[in-house]
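Morning, I've got a small favour to ask if you have a moment. I owe you a coffee for this, so here goes:

…
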Amino acid sequence: MSERKIFACGLSSPVWEHFGFYMKTENGIEVLDKSSAICKICKVSLVYRTGTTSNLKKTHRITSFPHKVKTYRYVR
């Protein structure tokens, strides 16, 4: 069995360098399955709610792989 490909999402947060989405078929059309974000390092699936990446960058990415990722500072 082949490994599922993780697709980039084109969203603006730097956290998306380390996460992406699987594809799913809806009405015969391939679309991104944005219900879960997939870690590109370990392939774990995390709940993704449109508009927030807090659980991705705080809960998983930084705590699981601090040596492989950048820490981001946002300027407002």
Observations:
- Residues 54-64 form the longest helix (11 residues).
- Residues 1-76 form one domain.
- The beta strands are 19-20, 23-26, 29-32, 36-39, 45-47.
